[in-house]
Design a protein that fits this description.
This protein is an alpha/beta fold. It has 2 domains: 2-193 and 373-391, Glycogen Phosphorylase B (Rossmann fold), CATH 3.40.50; 196-370, Glycogen Phosphorylase B (Rossmann fold). The chain contains 14 helices and 15 strands. The chain has helices spanning 28-31, 75-81, 83-91, 107-118, 131-134, 145-162, 173-177, 228-240, 256-265, 282-289, 305-312, 340-351, 354-368, 373-391, and strands spanning 2-13, 19-22, 40-49, 57-59, 65-71, 99-104, 124-127, 165-168, 185-188, 213-218, 245-250, 272-274, 293-296, 317-320, 334-335. Strands 1, 2, 3, 4, 5, 6, 7, 8 and 9 form a 9-stranded mixed sheet that branches. Helix 11 crosses helix 13. The model has no long low-confidence stretch (mean pLDDT 92).
Amino acid sequence: MRVVVSTEARFSRTPDGAVWTVGSSASHRFWTRYLTTFEQVRVVARTLDVPAPADGAVRVDGSQVEVWPVPHYVGPQEYLRFRRRVGAAVRAAADHADAVILRVPSPIGGLLASDRRRRGLPYGLEVVGDPYDVLAPGVVSHPLRPLLRQWSVRTLRRQCASARAVSYVTERCLQARYPARRDAVVAAYSSVDLPPAAYVPQPRRRAGSPETWTLVSVGSLDQLYKGIDTLIEAVARLTSAGTRLRLVHVGGGAYQSRLEQLAARLGVADRVVLLGAVPAGEPVRQRLDAADLFVLPSRTEGLPRALIEAMARGLPAIGASVGGVPELLTDEDLVAPDDPTGLADAIARMLADPARMAAASARNLAHSGRYSAEALAERREAFYRRLRALTQQPAPATSNA
């Protein structure tokens, strides 16, 4: 049986027909997880024709994995402009005999869900994010943001209420806001499955304090939802109070120059290093290992991979209390989003308490074991098997169909 999986990842296609992505989160290796249960994988995604792959790009398609291209668009306006062509491509992606998994929230997934409901065919969801938080005030700047937020939340709730199977990346958070129908197959597993190399063998046991503390943060700067502006303001407050520290941020994007200007305006340009994009894997782990404290000041999150990777390195962490972050950190390690003063205070308290840092290191490393590739594979594969069995049966009629 073939499984058709929709994604909001954006790919490029070279003249030889090869499909590429930058970063490992949507590479060929990622899609092979579905091959534990299905014989073929078809990935439905926006695809742009290009003359050559970008620097650092990796293949998406390959053995038993193909890409079904959808017209490439960026943003709501282009989506509306190309919606007819996008819809036609999406509807043609899956046959009645295919299993369908929609990685949502996703406009592409929404189109395919509507088509499956109209035809009385089952589908499954992997809920990997929360549009209520992603489109919250201060996260995305767009004149249609309030309407997009309302529409996206309503759409995801309807999809979860109609799907025959729903998995969530969180243990509680997304389940409460987007409940599945009573007779649905429900699972909780993350897309974050860390290889053995991601883990350190034991927690940190640092004696004393360094002359200069190193904070590290990780995330895209294409939007401000990672809250790095809040963190830079916290660094300025800490520096003014006499704490010797530096911030190293891993990840680049459109807002990098704006954040560099903010650091200069606050007088901490020499304390803030924005590295830009860094290859996944060992290069990122080296940055984590060189730091004393991981900070995640996000305005919105699902279940943050960057935080789990930091925990696997035994790093103490401070995180904003959004999305699935409270499922990873204890209350004393959480702060409100958009609160630079509260964030600065939380960082200062952590750095001033070696025993607390050691306890957080041990606790984080132990908890990150729940996200090892081995631990997650069993739950994920059980979900896929149930969905396969449901696909081979007619979906019962419901009021949501």
